[in-house]
Design brief:
The structure holds two protein chains of two kinds. By secondary structure, chain A is an alpha/beta fold. Chain A folds into two domains: 30-150 and 334-369, D-Maltodextrin-Binding Protein, domain 2, CATH 3.40.190.10; 156-331 and 404-451, D-Maltodextrin-Binding Protein, domain 2 (3-Layer(aba) Sandwich). Chain A is built from 21 helices and 14 strands. Chain A has helices spanning 4-26, 48-63, 78-89, 103-111, 119-123, 133-138, 162-168, 179-192, 209-220, 241-255, 262-265, 270-278, 294-297, 308-311, 345-355, 358-367, 375-379, 381-384, 390-394, 409-425, 430-445, and strands at residues 33-40, 68-75, 98-102, 148-150, 156-161, 197-200, 229-230, 235-237, 284-290, 312-315, 329-331, 334-338, 400-402, 450-451. In chain A, the strands form four sheets. Chain A has a five-stranded mixed β-sheet, with helices on both faces. A four-stranded mixed β-sheet of chain A has the order 6-9-5-10. Chain A has a three-stranded mixed β-sheet with strand order 7-8-14. Chain A is globular, with a radius of gyration of 24 Å. The relative contact order of chain A is 0.17. By secondary structure, chain B is mainly alpha-helical. Chain B has a single domain (63-296), classed as MetI-like fold. Chain B has helices at 2-12, 16-20, 24-45, 63-69, 72-106, 109-124, 127-138, 143-150, 158-161, 163-188, 192-200, 205-216, 218-233, 237-242, 254-264, 268-296. In chain B, helix 3 (24-45) packs across helix 16 (268-296), helix 4 (63-69) packs across helix 16 (268-296) and helix 5 packs parallel to helix 10 (163-188). The A-B interface holds A 1-2, 4-5, 8-9, 12, 79-80, 82-83, 86-87, 105, 107-109, 111-114, 204-206, 261-263, 266, 268, 407-408, 410-411, 414, 421-422, 424-425, 427-428, 436, 439, 443 and B 21-22, 25-26, 28-29, 50-55, 67, 71-72, 140, 157, 159-160, 244, 246-250, 263-267.
Chain lengths: 455, 297
């Protein structure tokens, strides 16, 4: 036993030494390297962000002699990407310098102290004046400071396949006025064109924020004013009549088999299948989805589809009963931010400046199919001629809504997705799912942070 | 001889501190890497730590545990965990492992080698690989339905309709090898004479199994049950890869529920509290097995 002791000690010391070395090596380390963390698409054919950032890396390293830009792709489904990013940002050893944050999450991460205010940098940056006010506000904390530079926004509407519509005897200039018009069209497709999925509405936990935003909130915000959060009372609103009506819509879509098979709708990669399989293959008639869909079908996209411009129609999503203004859209977007635990804030900011030159911002907006948030990009010929439908989706901006910009939103969104999944599978009735939402809301926001609004 | 006498004498003069010295590194490592994280975990379970949306965590006492007991989702997860454990560990892995071990003793050598290789291959596969394999097996467009269609039988959609059964089956498929190995060793330890004696006394096959074989391998059964159960209670990757706990929460066992709360809903404190409760469930099972074993002695 005895001779083994020094050996054991040595092994322990070695292990400890190598472990700590590991910790240091993987983190902040080199003062000349700036690390950018972003979400890599789980579809291996989709490398839009990666290709764009590879170009940025070359530019940055050419312009800043001796500096390096290291890309840290996180290939994961959206919810997993956020969890991973938050875990990385908790420790200075693993925190990336620049991170790409969804603006629905940014307020929450600001509150958690993960991000660094950028006001000192923005003050000396002339391009900041080019951003539209709504975009600027989307990356602002409750303390009034700005924590991120938005790189685009989006709007949402109905996409429909005119060829399938023709076979179903529906007009090519379809213009639904109410939710029922949408359901009726879906029912007509179901009856007249068998083998085609009539209507896709994202739902459930696996689809992540797409379910809450493209699916549920597009419905909910067509039922009345401030249905999710009451800004005057500063309280979250428990399930109202409109909330239950929206759930009922989702339930109807799946119970009447107007939507995709629930097993497909609740699978994590459903958004990819909609974009690169169901729509281009003519298997789906109507899709409630985002402004960016065209990017998949462009010649450089994941699934080139030359005929999409003539096949796919676009129409605003109606309010519940056609109440004014008659259309609903939701807007989100992503922003570049600097980690609070980064020791290289200056270099990180320079990287964001490189990302946000007029030329790079335009390239990004066009290749990712975004709606511009800067006036120089919005005015550029490259953007305006980039994709058919850019004008349509930009025209939805007056009808658009933003999600409640609050730290608790991500958890509220998660509760919404639970309720959607329960009615999609048929495990719970609408009333019961809404009741569980209320309970989850109370446990997240606390009883005083919640108000009921019965109409 | 002289050396053997000299050594104890020299040792006798050492204080207890010196004698414990060789144990110190191992103890330090255990404290640092085993007790440390466990204590940290216990500490977090009593706070409202969140992954995001909160500047600093504070102590909340038993609030997380109270929340758990009032939470439909938690209760559902406990029930599903029990179903999963009983189905896949007790009924599945354990009985099937014993049956395989018994049959293999009588089988010819090539059959034994082949069966052993196949069963153990499933066990050696990394959990996530097994998860994906069984996902493609049970998928609506997967292998099982192709076979059923070929046989002109109605197809299945268990991943959606009966996910807890699908993941239980997956766990049986993956974990039976372990029970089989334990029981093979135990059966090999039964003296041939006893079996022959029972045969001479006219005991039939089932009676021999019930009155001779099972009592003799009782200790192995208890050990195997305990190991199986504890391992099954903590299965996460297999379920996550196959169903992600869904659809709805039809296959959300405690480990999946814990992950969902901690990392998808950002409630680290609550998730950790659930982890401690899971530990409690494991401890309960262990106590039951230990008592069963003692009573029968």
């Amino acid at each position: 036993m005895r001779p083994a002791t020094p050996a054991l000690l040595a092994v322990a010391a070695l292990a400890a030494a190598s472990l700590t070395a590991c910790g240091e090596g993987s983190g902040g380390g080199d003062p000349d390297t700036v690390r950018i963390a972003y979400q890599r698409n789980t579809d291996n054919k989709n490398r839009i962000v990666d290709d764009y950032l590879a170009g940025i890396k070359r530019q940055f390293e050419r312009a800043h002699e001796g500096k390096k830009l290291e890309l840290v792709p996180i290939q994961a489904a959206q919810a997993d990407y956020f969890a991973k990013l938050q875990q990385m940002m908790r420790s200075p050893k693993t925190a990336p310098d620049v991170v790409r944050e969804d603006t629905f999450l940014i307020k929450s991460d600001i509150k958690a102290g993960y991000l660094r205010p950028l006001d000192d940098k923005l003050a000396g940056w002339k391009d900041w004046a080019r951003f539209v006010p709504a975009a600027k506000a989307s990356a602002q904390g409750q303390d009034g400071k700005t924590y991120g530079v938005p790189d685009g926004t989006d709007t949402r509407a109905l996409w429909f396949n005119k060829e399938i519509f023709a076979r179903a005897g529906l007009p090519a200039d379809w213009h639904p006025r109410t939710w029922n018009d949408v359901l009726d069209a879906a029912r007509t497709v179901a009856k007249k064109v068998p083998g085609v999925t009539p209507l896709n509405v994202y739902t459930g936990k696996a689809a992540g924020e797409a379910a809450a935003m493209q699916g549920f909130e597009m419905l909910l915000y067509g039922t009345g004013k401030d249905p999710l959060y009451d800004p005057a009372a500063r309280k979250w609103v428990t399930s109202s009549r409109g909330f239950r009506d929206a759930l009922e819509f989702v339930r109807t879509v799946y119970a009447e088999k107007l939507g995709p098979d629930p097993a497909d709708a609740l699978a994590p990669n459903v958004d990819g299948r909609v974009a690169t399989d169901w729509l281009p293959s003519g298997k789906l008639a109507i899709d409630l989805d985002g402004s960016w869909m065209g990017k998949y079908w462009q010649p450089a996209g994941t699934r080139p589809w030359p005929r999409w411009t003539s096949v796919m129609g676009r129409v605003p999503f109606p309010t519940q009963n056609g109440a004014a203004p008659g259309a609903v859209s939701m807007s989100g977007g992503w922003a570049w931010a600097v980690s609070a635990r980064s020791a290289k804030a200056d270099l990180a900011w320079q990287a964001i400046e490189t990302l946000q030159t007029t030329e790079n911002a335009t390239t990004w907006t066009v290749s990712d199919g975004q709606i511009a948030v800067r006036d120089d990009v919005a005015a550029s010929h490259k953007y305006l001629s980039s994709m058919p439908g850019v004008d349509f989706f930009t025209g939805l901006v007056p009808y658009t809504h933003y999600r409640p910009a609050l730290p608790l939103y991500p958890q509220v969104s998660s509760a919404i997705r639970d309720a959607m999944e329960a009615v999609t599978t048929g495990d719970a009735t609408v009333v019961r799912a809404a009741k569980r939402y209320d309970e989850e809301l109370k446990s997240v926001a606390g009883a005083p942070g919640v108000t009921a609004r019965e109409r | 001889m002289a050396g053997r006498h000299a050594a104890p004498r020299r040792r006798r003069y050492r204080g207890p501190a010196v004698r414990l010295l060789p144990l110190a590194p191992a103890t330090a490592l255990l404290l640092l890497f085993l007790a440390g994280p466990v204590a940290y975990c216990v500490a977090i379970a009593f706070t409202d730590t969140r992954l995001t949306g909160q500047a600093s965590a504070s102590f909340v006492g038993f609030a997380n545990f109270r929340h758990a007991f009032g939470d439909d989702g938690f209760r559902n997860a406990v029930v599903l965990t029990l179903v999963f454990t009983v189905l896949s560990s007790l009924v599945g892995q354990n009985s099937l492992g014993l049956a395989l071990a018994g049959l293999m003793r009588r089988a010819s050598r090539p059959v034994r080698t082949l069966t052993g290789a196949v069963v153990i291959a499933a066990w050696v596969l990394p959990e996530i690989v097994a998860g994906f394999l069984l996902y493609t097996f049970f998928n609506r467009r997967g292998t099982l339905n192709a076979v059923l269609e070929w046989l002109h039988l109605p197809d299945q959609n268990w991943l959606f309709g009966l996910p807890i059964l699908a993941v239980s089956f997956a766990n049986v498929w993956r974990g039976t090898a372990f029970s089989m190995l334990v029981y093979s060793a135990a059966l090999a330890g039964i003296p041939q004479e006893i079996r022959e004696a029972a045969e001479v006394d006219g005991a039939s096959g089932p009676r021999r199994l019930w009155h001779v074989t099972l009592p003799m391998i009782r200790r192995s059964i208890a050990t195997n049950l305990m190991l199986n159960t504890l391992q099954t209670l903590s299965v996460f990757g297999l379920i996550w890869a196959m169903t992600r706990g869904g659809p709805g929460d039809r296959s959300t066992t405690l480990p999946v529920f814990m992950y969902d709360q901690a990392f998808q809903k950002s409630l680290i404190g609550y998730g950790t509290a659930v982890a401690l409760l899971l530990l409690l469930v494991g401890a309960l099972f262990s106590v039951v097995y230990l008592r069963l074993m003692r009573e029968e002695v």
